[in-house]
Design a protein that fits this description.
α3 packs across α16, α8 packs across α9 and α10 runs parallel beside α14. By secondary structure, the protein is mostly helical. The protein has 16 helices and no strands.
């Protein structure tokens, strides 16, 4: 069965069919442009938290943090925690989007400036999101190929993901993204922590890691070189400007019932992401202990560990891992 068990295939099939079905059901809620782009601003705190988490978290971030950690140690956490100091500002900024009373960010630019500025923003935003979506799909396809031992084509994986989130995204609009991101957010958290207990057991826990890794700097959160305080400060400042200008920031902030839902939703979702980053670092540290001395490409570490560890635990875990991978990508791409 293409390198993975029948049980794994069943788990993947249930996810793919289920998530497309849930997203398509949201089409019933689409009655106007407001319901398509904003879901009529009817979502509560829990749905907004998972929506914020899903839209801002994708599988390639877990891959990149684990890969950097494998190379430099625990300080690899800063490849995602660069935005840690921006998180409190979301509590202040998100209500502003709701107070604009616009459907999309381009609408605001039309009101504030003129239609040509709105058109320019829409064109640039579309091009940016096309590139981002393509990069995420390509990365996820490569990782799925690695987990399946090269049996599943990355082209097949990319087409399957694109077809599904495009279908329910067009039919159900933002409501489809919010409903599916609730399920996919849970799976993304599962992806983040699924490998942790098995990886720690494989290396003998933290004590075993310290015996294998004799370089104490690998356990330090302070990067010896590269990421400095100035670098973090510049990235944080740039992130504030960049996030406000993202085409997806307004719906992610303003789809809640009130301003409070928007605040709790996006800020809470990003806090969950910060915790998940810790799990990605633990996996990368365990990879150092498991594969020390072997010539392995760093970007393949996350998938390789899943392939080596999960089938030994119980059937279906590889399928759950791949489904979680798909969820991590689709939860962001559907918003885009």
């Amino acid at each position: 069965m293409l390198g993975i068990s029948l049980t794994d295939w069943l788990v993947i099939a249930v996810y793919l069919v289920g998530i497309t079905f849930i997203g398509s059901l949201a089409a019933r809620r689409v009655t106007s442009s407001a319901s398509l782009f904003m879901g009529d601003r009817k979502f509560g705190k829990v749905m907004m938290i998972f929506f914020g988490f899903g839209s801002g978290t994708h599988s390639d971030q877990a891959v990149s943090v684990a890969a950097k950690t494998y190379g430099v140690g625990a300080s690899g956490i800063w490849y995602q925690w660069l935005w840690l100091f921006v998180t409190p500002f979301f509590w202040v900024i998100t209500p502003v989007f709701r107070r604009m009373r616009a459907i999309t960010t381009a609408d605001f630019f039309e009101i504030r400036y003129n239609r040509s500025v709105a058109l320019l923003f829409a064109l640039v935003g579309c091009l940016q999101l096309m590139v981002n979506t393509g990069v995420m799909l390509k990365g996820a396809g490569a990782m799925i190929t690695a987990v399946s031992g090269g049996a599943i084509s990355p082209v097949l994986a990319v087409w399957a993901m694109a077809l599904m989130f495009t279908t329910y995204g067009i039919l159900g609009g933002l409501s489809a993204a919010v409903f599916t991101d609730f399920v996919q957010g849970i799976l993304t958290i599962t992806l983040s922590f699924l490998l942790v207990p098995f990886a720690l057991e494989a290396v003998g826990g933290i004590a075993g890691l310290r015996e294998v890794i004799d370089d104490d700097s690998k356990f330090s959160l302070v990067a010896p070189t590269g990421i400095t305080f100035f670098y973090i400060a510049v990235i944080a400042l740039n992130a504030l400007f960049g996030w406000v200008a993202q085409p997806t920031s307004m719906p992610c902030s303003a789809a809640g019932k009130t301003e409070l839902e928007g605040r709790i939703g996006f800020t809470g979702g990003m806090m969950i992401k910060r915790v998940c980053t810790v799990a990605w670092v633990i996996v990368g540290m365990c990879a150092i202990g498991m594969y020390m001395g072997r010539d392995i490409e760093a970007d393949q570490i996350y998938g390789l560990m899943a392939k080596d560890l999960l089938p030994q635990i119980m059937p279906g875990l590889i399928g759950l891992f791949i489904a979680s991978l798909l969820a991590g990508v689709m939860s962001t791409c559907d918003v885009f």
